[in-house]
């Protein structure tokens, strides 16, 4: 895959475009505290931040019963709605990358499994809303990634054929979704990968170590 094969770029949100773990883990810890549990360190929970609120809770208290886990999940979501975006930021070199894409006339957008009630305010706080040509949330279609429905919707929004789109993600479902939609999959190795992940087995065309290497791809 060469940059000339890419006419549009789509990003996963949590762990790919933005470092949202500080807000998510903070909201988790507020809910854990409400229920009498100890706080979890950000560094040990960061890898879970791409996989949704219930996965965060199950990672924090794996031995708790399901009803309690779901109760703490609901508390997490309530706290997160209040603090969403306060401590989140774009990953290093990605603001410069987006500027470069603007300069090259390459449209870009977001495809996330995060519900719109959280994704859209977050994107707004990150200052991205005026620049995104696509904003597809987990509830924008009837299916979430790895289904192709949100991928094809985003392709329509940026008006680029799927086979000319680079989709960047930090979880296996992201690369499976890209492959299913006939997009170029790129692994964001700077994201929330765990020690158990093996991204070289994922169906990806390229692996990017950091934002700088992704930026360099569009300069070459």
From TrEMBL:
Keywords: Carbohydrate metabolism, Hydrolase, Magnesium, Metal-binding. It holds the Pfam family HAD_2. Transmembrane segments: none annotated. It comes from the Bacteria. InterPro entries: HAD-like_hydrolase_sf, HAD-like_sf, HAD-SF_hydro_IA, HAD_2, HAD_sf, PGP-like_dom2. This is Haloacid dehalogenase. It comes from Shewanella saliphila.
């Amino acid at each position: 895959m060469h940059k000339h094969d890419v006419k549009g770029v789509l990003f996963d949100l949590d762990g790919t475009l933005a470092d949202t773990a500080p807000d998510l883990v903070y909201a988790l810890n507020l809910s854990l505290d409400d229920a009498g549990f100890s706080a979890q360190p950000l560094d040990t929970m960061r890898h879970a931040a791409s996989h949704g609120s219930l996965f965060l809770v199950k990672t924090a208290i794996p031995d708790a019963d399901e009803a309690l886990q779901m109760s703490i999940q609901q508390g997490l979501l309530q706290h997160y709605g209040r603090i969403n975006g306060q401590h989140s930021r774009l990953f290093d070199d990605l603001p410069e990358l987006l500027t470069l894409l603007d300069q090259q006339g390459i449209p870009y957008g977001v495809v996330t499994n995060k519900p719109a009630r959280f994704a859209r305010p977050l994107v707004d706080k990150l200052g991205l809303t005026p620049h995104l040509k696509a904003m597809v949330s987990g509830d924008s279609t009837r299916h979430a990634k790895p289904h192709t429905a949100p991928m094809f919707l985003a392709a329509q929004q940026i008006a680029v054929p799927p086979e000319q789109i680079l989709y960047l993600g930090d979880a296996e479902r992201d690369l499976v979704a890209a492959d299913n939609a006939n997009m170029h999959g790129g692994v964001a190795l700077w994201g929330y990968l765990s020690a158990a992940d093996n991204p070289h087995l994922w169906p990806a065309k390229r692996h990017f170590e950091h934002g700088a290497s992704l930026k360099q791809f569009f300069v070459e």
